[in-house]
């Protein structure tokens, strides 16, 4: 479900790939998303009129390694899981992409089950036949053996 | 009102135009938006560091024909209209752009009347003079004779 | 906190910079954001498959000078401040970038304190040590002596 936009500066395709995996693996581990529940838009800004702006808000020093991660997901995740997500994204962004934790910015926006269509013109989460674990965003997290999948 | 972002892979301008029309016509038909209520950002990702990621979540097989459609609109649309919207978007994306319904992904995010400014620095939906049908997102849909307008 | 996306047509880097400053200064003045609380994605659409669509909705005549400004911020700002924001954005977009007020489109999306991470893997607004003025979006606006800062 989560719909993710990642915006970074520069033209390194491998870095952008790594950031996408960092965000996805962190969400699988901490929120409990299925490993194949991945929908991402990855954009590196490097052209004449496409860029990012940032400052040192809250005393956090940022530089051109800054990464903006905007995630849309259903409401219902407890604050503890969101905090775990931020921690893990920062860790994996550093591990996978060399991004310093100070440069990792995350913002979440929530909606509801009926606000998603995953193809075939259906609102899968709002259909009577949807599995219970997909219908309940607050369901316990199942252990994930290998979250670091990549296509 | 709706603010729409459409992200697709590839460099076919006509296809992106067709997807924009598919989404707009579907919204006019199923949600009842006025035909001239169109605000869209259309982006084809084809460069070195701008791309989409996807998997076969929920058993839906996707490929590089995948289209991400993110719509911001006011709260208040009943679930039935949202479901009708998904169905119609999938139909028209196929009819106009040749996109297979399995590749059509839609996510909605809601806000309120005061969260919109349509120019001139005004919050048009929150002004006392706004017409009633614009002020009420749950108002009945008026029949639309020719929704397939294009500028 | 606010996360801002600005989409415009054309390839003028100075214009995009000016629009970014217009939106930021307007938010500092009317909503009371700290001057260094700036997180922006600025995109000029000029390529083969990246563009904007618009019509004359609500009788407002728009042209290729149209600017889409999408702002994510925490809930709690009173309607009066949002209206003041729209007015000031339109004024400053004209003053800084020559954008006509009719071409300035703004849409807000709200979330909560725990939905933000400003680096270091922390949910700064949801930590017990966060300063009170950062924790309360409805707190009175402090006078800002020089909002027109630029990095």
Automatic annotation (TrEMBL), chains A, B, C:
Gene3D superfamilies: Macrophage Migration Inhibitory Factor. InterPro entries: Tauto_MSAD, Tautomerase/MIF_sf. It comes from the Bacteria. This is 4-oxalocrotonate tautomerase.
């Amino acid at each position: 479900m989560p719909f993710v936009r990642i915006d970074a500066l520069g033209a390194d395709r491998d870095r952008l790939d790594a950031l996408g995996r960092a965000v996805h693996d962190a969400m699988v581990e901490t929120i409990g998303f299925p490993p194949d529940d991945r929908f991402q838009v990855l954009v590196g800004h490097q052209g004449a009129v496409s860029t990012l702006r940032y400052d040192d808000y809250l005393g956090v020093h940022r530089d051109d390694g800054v990464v903006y991660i905007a995630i849309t997901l259903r409401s219902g995740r407890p604050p503890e899981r969101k905090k775990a997500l931020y921690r893990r994204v920062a860790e994996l962004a550093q591990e996978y992409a060399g991004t310093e934790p100070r440069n990792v910015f995350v913002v979440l926006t929530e909606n509801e089950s009926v606000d998603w269509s995953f193809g075939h013109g259906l609102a899968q989460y709002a259909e009577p036949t949807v599995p219970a674990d997909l219908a309940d965003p607050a369901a316990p997290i199942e252990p994930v053996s290998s979250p670091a999948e990549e296509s």
